[in-house]
């Protein structure tokens, strides 16, 4: 009913709007007055966490993209090797698991069969499993050694939005917590990132306030057949998520690529007026990364692409090459997906509406896939 949707036309719109609160709620009570993380819920004791020598993340769909981003954060802040794998592939390839492997299973519903089977397999090999889940008491957290709940609240729209942002927050918390427990050489950075994270909901809110041009752009592209998405570093999984949202909602051919792979194939797809969304990393953090993507934008534009550039406020280097410029607030490099994903959700939702699609219940899809 309209009341359930809180005055919005679709649950998805309501859930997109709820993201600042979902992010803040997921942080609530997990950072103490001294800016340290207190994750008592992670019942895996600190000594076991100190001994962990490998992390494997398993998930499906949007949760898998959160896992891909988590890998960048975990390896950078903890120096523990981390793999991410689609749950549906994981147990069929005889993965190397032992009691010092920490497996992280990410699932909004807690009922996805592939993810559940992956975690069962991991536990049979003696590995510890930490679930990141949005649904209290669901099967995946019940069968795990520990659980860090995301506090997105119920997500009704099939295409995941607020659950994704809270999965990212939970992944950052786990990564920073591991860094804290293990006392890595990144101690100061960990401290400052916790502070930045505790402030991030405001920036998500800021993005939401500036989405009208994105909606307008989406409507103008409603008769296109293809949209490509490019990113580097954590912007790469964001590109994959942007493409997934567009497939799910707009039923358009959408593909995400690592921008560095352009020359190895995707650039052959560029033709006159093809919309290409590019997620640009902060020009402050790692400038090499930023410079490389600016030249990628130049390359595709020279071949006729219509460039839709998502870049940090104050990033002037992209201006000459952006046919459409979507501004996001400045964040630390690793946290950027929390703000960069939001315009892509709005973009896909508006395109779906413009194409007359059912936003909350896309054809052929289910909110939770409980069969293999
Ligand atoms: C389905 C949903 C996706 C979701 C995926 C994983 O495909 O349509 O939105 O990302 O399942 O779901 P989970 O509940 O495990 O996060």
Automatic annotation (TrEMBL):
Q: Which UniProt keywords apply?
A: Aminotransferase, Cytoplasm, Glutamine amidotransferase, Repeat, Transferase
Quote the catalytic activity from the record.
D-fructose 6-phosphate + L-glutamine = D-glucosamine 6-phosphate + L-glutamate
- Domain SIS, chain residue ranges per copy: 45-184, 217-362
Protein known as: Glutamine--fructose-6-phosphate aminotransferase [isomerizing]
Sum up the protein's function in the record's words: Catalyzes the first step in hexosamine metabolism, converting fructose-6P into glucosamine-6P using glutamine as a nitrogen source.
Q: What is the lineage of its organism?
A: Bacteria, Bacillati, Actinomycetota, Actinomycetes, Kitasatosporales
Main localization (coarse) = cytoplasm
Record text on subunit structure and interactions: Homodimer.
Q: Which residues of the full protein are shown?
A: 237 to 608 of 608
Catalytic site residues?
A: 367
**GO cellular component terms given for this protein:** cytosol
């Amino acid at each position: 009913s309209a009341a359930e949707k809180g005055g919005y036309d679709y649950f998805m719109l309501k859930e997109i709007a709820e993201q600042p609160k979902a992010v803040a709620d997921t942080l609530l009570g997990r950072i103490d007055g001294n800016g340290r993380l207190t994750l008592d819920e992670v019942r895996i004791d600190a000594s076991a966490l100190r001994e962990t020598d490998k992390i494997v993340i398993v998930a499906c769909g949007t949760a898998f993209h959160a896992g891909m981003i988590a890998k960048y954060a975990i390896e950078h802040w903890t120096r523990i090797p981390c793999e991410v794998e689609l749950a549906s592939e994981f147990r069929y390839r005889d993965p190397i698991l032992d009691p010092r492997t920490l497996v992280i299973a990410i699932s909004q519903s807690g009922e996805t069969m592939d993810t559940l089977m992956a975690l069962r397999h991991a536990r049979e090999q003696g590995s510890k499993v930490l679930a990141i889940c949005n649904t209290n008491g669901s099967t995946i957290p019940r069968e795990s050694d520990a659980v860090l709940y995301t506090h997105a609240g119920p997500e009704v729209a099939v295409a995941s939005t607020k659950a994704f942002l809270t999965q990212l927050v939970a992944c950052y918390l786990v990564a920073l917590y591991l860094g804290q427990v293990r006392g890595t050489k990144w101690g100061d950075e960990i401290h400052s990132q916790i502070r930045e994270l505790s402030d991030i909901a405001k920036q998500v809110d800021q993005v939401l306030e500036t989405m009208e041009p994105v909606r307008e752009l989406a409507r103008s592209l409603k008769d296109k057949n293809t949209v490509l998405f490019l990113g580097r570093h954590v912007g790469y999984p964001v590109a994959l998520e942007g493409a997934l949202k567009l497939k799910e909602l707009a039923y358009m051919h959408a593909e995400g690529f690592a921008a560095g792979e352009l020359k190895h194939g995707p650039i052959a797809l560029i033709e006159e007026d093809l919309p290409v969304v590019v997620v640009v990393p902060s020009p402050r953090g790692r400038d090499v990364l930023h410079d490389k993507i600016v030249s990628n934008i130049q390359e595709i534009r020279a071949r006729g692409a219509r460039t839709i550039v998502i870049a940090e406020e104050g990033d002037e280097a992209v201006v000459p090459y952006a046919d459409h410029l979507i501004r996001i607030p400045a964040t630390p490099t690793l946290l950027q997906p929390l703000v960069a994903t939001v315009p892509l959700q709005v973009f896909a939702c508006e395109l779906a509406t413009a194409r007359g699609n059912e936003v909350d219940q896309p054809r052929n899809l289910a909110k939770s896939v409980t069969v293999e």
